[in-house]
Amino acid sequence: MRRILVAATFVAAAAGLVGSSQASPTAQHLRDANQAGHATTSVFASGFNNPRGLTFGPDGNLYVAEGGLGGSNSTVGQCPQAAGAGAPYTGSTNDPVRGGRISRVSPGGAVTTVVNALPSSQTSPGLGSLVSGVSSVAFIGNQLYALLAGAGCSHGVPSVPNGVIRVGSDGRWSLIANLSAFLASHPAAHPDLEDFEPDGTWYSMISFDGALYPMDSNHGELDRVTPDGSISRVVDISAQVGHVVPTALVHRGSSDSGDEAEQENGSGTTFIANLGLFGPTDGTGDEHIYQLSDSGSLSVHASGLEQVLGLAFRQGNLYALEMSTTGGGPTAGTGAIVRVQNGAPVETVASGLTFPTGMTVGPDGAFYVSDHGFGSGAGAGRVLRITIP
């Protein structure tokens, strides 16, 4: 059973579900979420196009990466295409309506656009025309950076590669690191050729120690990007644990709290979680959280998780965002947040989420989660605020 890639291709099994009645959240879904661990769930902001990673900036606002709405430009015959059922992709460049974007949400929930018309692409209709664009956002000091995942010639965007961009206060952006080229010149040891994406499927990026750390789910690697654009390999995940589709990333600093503000602290430990298989093993908890040592080796920190797309620390505890928790492929309304405890089964603290795709912890200690993160159409994405005791 091959592993399906996250962002643009990870929802092959879910494509038929997104358009069903299960795809829309219901009051019962939110009640279920409130019952799990006595969590309280509310809609913090809405109107997003395929929201993905999110982070709080030094100004106290929440910044949300959005995949956009895809595009119609094809590059078949111009460059190598992606393998698998998701190909050929079609994309858009400089499209203010369909393009990826970054939104800013005030503490009161007001949404404004920081930058739009970023590259966005979509799979073939056979995989539901699933969208990828901007996948993650991060800060170094007051400077905003973002990770492009829907760009590159294999995604129908020949003029812009996948990479890390710097975003100015005026909404202008510039590419500082060409990750598509880095993949080509630094191949991973064990990519899955049946699902191979020449430009990668870059899903998560964090910052600490004055640098950015983007991770590619398709080739299976974590890299380091400095503000001047230098790229280096941190770990070839595929060489150590195979094609596990790494998707989620968090760095815990050395102080006792472990909250996400510590990602600016260079000391500490990095944790990586994976998406895993879609198929007969769904619902069996066969995904892991790996701990990355200073020497670059991976060890299993925790097991018993499902389809993880986010990691965060809160009050010293590690939490994972599970996109779906049932058998038979991704299922709307079954996403969850679980608390990870050493030597003990994971504990569900919030449930009933609909295809959640990103998670962060706010200054108020609440979880902020991108919900309806794929497959729900224009403006259907939203950010939930979830509080737990």
Key descriptive features of the protein:
single chain, 389 residues, mainly beta, Neuraminidase, four-stranded antiparallel sheet, 4 helices, 41% strand, disordered N terminus
Question: What do you see in this structure?
Answer:
With 389 residues, this protein is mainly beta. It has a domain of 261 residues: Neuraminidase, CATH 2.120.10. The chain is built from four helices and 27 strands. The protein has a four-stranded antiparallel sheet, with helices on one face. It has a four-stranded antiparallel sheet with strand order 2-3-5-6, with no helix packed on it. It has a four-stranded antiparallel sheet with strand order 9-10-11-12. The chain starts with 14 loop residues before the first helix and ends with a strand.
Summarize the structure.
By secondary structure, the chain is mostly beta strands.
The count of β-strands is 27
Structural class: mainly beta
CATH fold-level assignment of the domain at 15-19 and 53-308: Neuraminidase
Strand order of the largest sheet: 1-27-26-25
Overall geometry comes to globular
Radius of gyration: 18 Å
Give the helix/strand layout:
Elements: H1 15-18, H2 27-35, E1 40-48, E2 51-56, E3 62-66, E4 90-92, E5 100-105, E6 111-118, E7 120-122, E8 131-132, E9 134-140, E10 143-148, E11 163-167, E12 173-178, H3 179-185, E13 202-208, E14 211-216, E15 221-225, E16 231-236, H4 237-241, E17 246-252, E18 269-274, E19 287-292, E20 298-305, E21 308-314, E22 317-322, E23 335-340, E24 347-353, E25 358-361, E26 367-371, E27 381-387
Antiparallel strand pairs: 1-27, 2-3, 3-5, 4-7, 5-6, 7-8, 9-10, 10-11, 11-12, 13-14, 14-15, 15-16, 17-18, 18-19, 19-20, 21-22, 22-23, 23-24, 25-26, 26-27
